[in-house]
Structures are given as structure tokens and as C-alpha cells.
Structure prediction request, 71 residues.
Amino acid sequence: MKLYQEGDKGQAICRHCEKIVATTFERKDVLFSDGVETARDILVSAYDNCGEVVGIPAPSTPAVAVRSLSR
Prediction:
């Protein structure tokens, strides 16, 4: 498993553009799809053009999973 760090560059598929886009790994607060809960300060892959979160690397998934289970 590759470990990503803040500032690393990558590529991902944007669900809005439906194409491969350039990304940068950064720390963000991410709102869950329920629109209520937030995962705070997690490493994500953000689209360089608009800042939209397009991916969450494996090391950040425990923060999301723990939040989901604590409901």
C-alpha cells in the first residue's frame, strides 16, 4: 500500500467531469453523504481545478469507518 502525504500529486476520476483529473493530497473536513456528520482533518485527494474531494486514500478510511460506526 502506498502511503500518501499532504502535497503529493495524483490522478483520479471526477464524478462530475467523468474524466481523469489531476489531484493534490490535502487535509480537509469531509461531510458525509447524510449531510449531518463530518470527518475532520482527514487526508483526501482533491481535484486541482475546483478543490472537490475525488478520493480518500486507505490510511484515511479508519477515520471515516469509526465515525460511521459511532452513530
Remarks:
- The helical segments are 61-69.
- The CA atoms of residues 7 and 48 lie 11 Å apart.
- The two ends are 29 Å apart (CA to CA).
- The chain has a mean pLDDT of 85.
